[in-house]
Amino acid sequence: MSTNSRFAVAVHVLTLMAWSDEESLKSDQMAVSVNTNPVVVRRMLCDLAEGKLVVSHTGSTGGSRLARNPEQITLLDVYRTIEATDVFSLHPKRPSHRCPVGSSIGTVLQGVRAEIDSAIEGVLAGITIEDVMLRLKPQARRPEVKKKRASNH
Amino acid sequence: MSTNSRFAVAVHVLTLMAWSDEESLKSDQMAVSVNTNPVVVRRMLCDLAEGKLVVSHTGSTGGSRLARNPEQITLLDVYRTIEATDVFSLHPKRPSHRCPVGSSIGTVLQGVRAEIDSAIEGVLAGITIEDVMLRLKPQARRPEVKKKRASNH
DNA sequence: GTTATTGTAACTAGAATAGTTACAAATGAA
DNA sequence: TTCATTTGTAACTATTCTAGTTACAATAAC
Prior knowledge:
2 copies of one chain form a homodimer. The first copy, chain A, is mainly alpha-helical.
């Protein structure tokens, strides 16, 4: 995945939408919290919408909200939706097929990568957006009383 | 770790050295198998030498060989030595500390990353360079009789 | 119609990646 | 000693990746 922060941004905006409950959020609002450009947020929201994790609407009263409950969205859903880059890359140029090691090291490395992917997916499948909210610092937590409330960034 | 192939190259050259047994290999030879420039290999070998995984010697009869037996080098050793990049990056610019989510999402994400790292390390700790050799295609395997033999790439 | 918002294309600056040339330092052999 | 060979490393380059930015058509509510 790597030197790209798409997963972090995705989890962030999903958590914002979970936080604001039914209230739909504008890309501008979320961009302030994420500290980036609204277009970066909108691009991410498009991807998340394709993955059926959020629903967006155009128009003056538009915005985005979660497509399902926070406890029904796992970080694995997010990970898959954003099509994260591989955990590690194979050789930029194919190794020598004339060398006994070079000719099959790629297959071996793909196997290792598959094992790592399973492990990662096991972790991510066990964490939901609801869990992420619960892990936020106490003072940041949404009140127990699950009442509709304005978001505040 | 990501869009960088250093882990793949590291495992590749270590496997070449394991294959060639006591015979020390030149960076030029390994570069042919990896299909890259010898300097790229030498840079990697320097890192691996710092991590005490290989030993190199300058001079006309120089070259590199493993610092210990293939079964005593795990992929976790390699992973740590090359200082792989993070599995995923946090936000390029710090989120808003004025937003309840933005102010603590970073800590939550670091926690998630730590869980992923543990999982990855568990996998990598269980695979040695010896295992990698055993996973090579049968026709590529070094003969059972562990006799010194010239490498062939 | 006016206004606010998304979706998306096009461009940019900066960073990361690995490939390349070049050469000093080390080592062993003639 | 002198020569050949190899590592270690600096410096530069081309390419790709990343995310930031501007701009604007399409959409929807009022």
